[in-house]
Fold this sequence. Notes:
Elements: E1 5-10, H1 12-21, H2 27-35, E2 42-48, H3 56-60, H4 67-83, E3 88-98, E4 111-114, E5 117-123, H5 129-139, E6 146-151, H6 165-174, E7 177-182, E8 187-192
Antiparallel strand pairs: 1-2, 2-8, 3-5, 3-6, 4-5, 6-7, 7-8
Helix pairs in contact: 2-6
Amino acid sequence: MTGEYKTLSLDEEALCFFRERINTRLPLATAVLSHHDLARGRFRTLVAEHISHVTRENLERGGLFRSSASREWVIDGIVKYLSAAPDRLCVLEDHVGRSSDPGLSLSRSRIVTCAEYVYFVLCADDTHRQRIERVLWDAASASITYGFMTAAPPAWDPNSGRFSGQDLEYLADKTEKIVVDAYDGEGWLIWEKA
Length: 194
């Protein structure tokens, strides 16, 4: 990223923020956190050029920069990840939606369920920026948005609309990156497996 923004590595502030932000009452988040020690990974974010350190307070409040720059940054990261291999997925866990919600049928995003839980899924062929932005928007209908960049289970059919419990465990084990919204919804953090 050039110009008035830079990528900044983060420390313990980000680790605490991630742990509080990811809903551990949901199956995929719970599985990911049981498979990965977040402290062993790297945390990054996009910030305005003049910012040298991000505090815990900064992660929770907005107004630090234009949100469009951070949105473009996270979309770039998702495109790059999905483009790297045909089995790549970005799975956003909806922490309030349930499979019985009538509004899900109106969404143009790929929605996958596991029991009553809802996931917005981007596959390797979903690298169009507008599609990714729409999925991020749909997933952001809740106050917290996070997603897991991972690999598809070997026998999983993206048109099935379903994940099994075993699929969620596979997704968790293969997670390489996690994206979490921050800065009062104006920005993003990315965790990368070490």
